[in-house]
Amino acid sequence: MNKTKNRTLTISLSIILVTSMLTAISTLQTTSAHDPAWEIPTYAKLGFSCNPIGVGQETLIYMFLGNPPFDGAALVNDYRFRNYQLTITAPDGSEEKLTFDYVADSTNAQTYSYTPEQIGEYSINFTFPGQAINDYSHNPNSEYVNDTYLPSSTSAKLIVQEEQIPSPIDSYPLPTEYWTRPIYGENSYWFTISSNWLGSGVPGYGGMPGPNLKCFSGDSIGPETSHVMWTMPIQEGGVVGGDLFDIPGNTYFEGSAYIQRFTNPIIVNGRLYFREPFSFSGGTTGPTYCVDIRSGEVIWSRTDLPTLSFAYIYDVETPQQHGVHPAILCTSNFGQGFDADTGDLLFDTTGVPSGTTVLGPQGEHIRYVITPANQGNTEDPDWRLLQWNSSKLWSGLGFGEGTSTRPSISGTVDASTSNRYDWNISLPWLNAMDQSLSRGSLSNPISVVQAFYNDMLLCREGSLPSTRADPSIVNPYTYFAVNLDPSRGSIGSVLWRNTVTPPENIQIISYGGADPDVRVFVESYRQTSTWTGYSLDTGKKLWGPTQSQEDFDYYGSPGPGTLANTIAYGKLYSSAYAGILYCYDLQTGQRLWTYGNGGEGNSTFGGLGVYYNHYPTFINAIGNDIVYLVTTEHTIETPIYKGSLVRAVNATDGSEIWTLSGFVGEFAASSFAIADGYALYFNGYDNQIYSVGRGPSAMTVEAPLANVQLGSGLVIRGSVTDVSAGTLQNEQAARFTYGVPVASDESMKDWMGYIYQQKPLPTSFTGVPVVISVVDSNGNYRTIGTATTDDSGVYSLQWTPDIEGMYMVYATFEGTNGYWPSNAVTSFAVDPAAATPTPQATQPESMADQYFIPAMAGLFILVAIIGAVIILMLRKRP
User: Fold this and answer.
1) For the whole model, what pTM was predicted?
2) Which pairs from 468-472 meet CB under 8 Å and 24+ separation?
3) What is the pLDDT of residue 367?
4) Are residues 687 and 721 in the same domain?
């Protein structure tokens, strides 16, 4: 039996047909009906998405008319051709007949998904039976009124073979070498290793760690290493020098608490956007920079931009347009939009409504607004719920008003008009609540706690305890859910209500965020530093309060003061002034693990150097199953206490992945971002921006240039160096004239401290392994050994070749979390072993050797003696 199903044509064929057909129809003049009526010929057409096709594989059958679209056909009406007939005759003669009463696509095209189950030749017939204009909906002013489209038919063969047609490439493999943006369009799966950081104006980003899912966007990718790519000073930093101050070795101001130097970093398409500070002012007064996160290159800087809030990336999926449009940098609440590539102004926006924002499925901002329709009528305000959609700021097909085939926006846009909303419904239950409370005003009696797109609004009636002077006074409050999912009832209806009576003696309760996947939301109790969990489906309490965290966590996060936490992966993570990272299971409230209160590799202990026993440690980002932690606090004294670290911890088991010296001074805004496998953050020890991530490496290899003889040993040596952009900075290039040596992941923290932070040369350095292989003169490939680089980046291997001839040498560094792989090639030759000299036979002594030569030697000696005696006697004569 054939497996078949209908499918509406929505792919690129529509665009091709629309373009050609609308061009043709535009040449016709619109007139009134004519006499006699016309009989218009039609031209049936057939096509296949794949022909031939393997048995059991799916192909699309395309049926369309080679005529201009039905007069007046558009997406917003039902002026269409009707009753397309499709007959499929299988190789065994069996037939399948289908009729399509209505052709939804405005370009005359209908598709049918077909999976053949027999091998052989199928006969496919498409018949259009003809259609009188007046028989169905049509444009009453059309010049074709009373006319008739004549029938037409066509056939084609579908070849079905046993051999399967290969599946299309869904993506090329993930990279095994250093890579940069842009990512080539055929590498679809690279989305798993790339990401953006959209900024504090987008739900899930920005602000100090606290409630409402801060610092977890869901798709951001950070580094698995403490390798430094580059540093960039944004203001004088570090030790001032000299003896002018009461505090010996005092350092330049790093920004805490109220004038941070580096706030709300935004990363889009591998580029960092930030505003430089100016003198003693905060991070809102200097020029705006666009910097490559891998190289530190300044793409552009401008002094005419206001403070940015977020990046807007929208996926345009309409019948006429497909793909994500270039990023836009926006000020708060869409006030102004700027081109991310140039910084040029694109548009101004007025009238953006207040409400609770979530991200829609295409990157649009969905804002839920509760407001009275009758603004001046306190007796009958008519409270309403509206869904505002940022994509409708644009004009163009599918973007709100207008009929343009492409989205556009310019000038000043009024965001308050009705066409900026997806829907607008009345809330009778809120009208009744407002009247029952006898408010006599138009102030909203409820609070929207958090919104979940196409799911629900979590709301609250009444206030959470914040400052209860008398602990015995207990004021209940009520959570309730408002439906946003049309599949489970009317939008705006109340799904459930649950009244909570707070515990006695708890003076401050805060909302701690929710996870819509595991269906849990939480509260924190500040006095006891504990958590309580509730069901998103019923509002009922599920667990809690948990065991108390350490007492210093009472002070909460540096900014808002609430117990700091982030929700991700079905877990609640909390870390604050006590310096301990806690992980809880959201479904049970069970504490799964802690980090910071263990031994080596699991310690934030500060001893006498800090004021809280442990370094105050806060969550700044979570991504790719890693929790990124920083040391910071409300106001830090200078010189900053020693030993502060940026940390990366496994989000599943709490094991430490890497650390690096740094004090990320923050208060109410984040100074940390992750994207594309990199972390960008501010370090108050030297007032520089750091880019941390996996960097490129470079290799050399050399062998003897002169031939060696078989049986003789030789040395293969070379180097592996770090070629990240930071190694070319003035100080690093001057210190390491032969390049910066690479380090193992285990040595990275201290090595980066030595390279970039003027720390001592590590005494426990380890390099990276290099695999050395050869191809000998017989064509055999083999690995001959592994060598490890030293703190000069050099490796060497002694080896004795075992056959004669030419050798190719391949040295390979396979990479680490800190460096991408690299390799190098050289060659050497081996001569045959040298021949051993043949020994000469010994000659017997002759008579001359035995008697004459010795006698002559004796005679010469005698003559010499006599001569010497005569000379002596002559000298003694008077």
Assistant:
1) 0.87
2) 468/507, 468/508, 471/504, 471/505, 471/506, 471/507, 472/504
3) 97
4) no
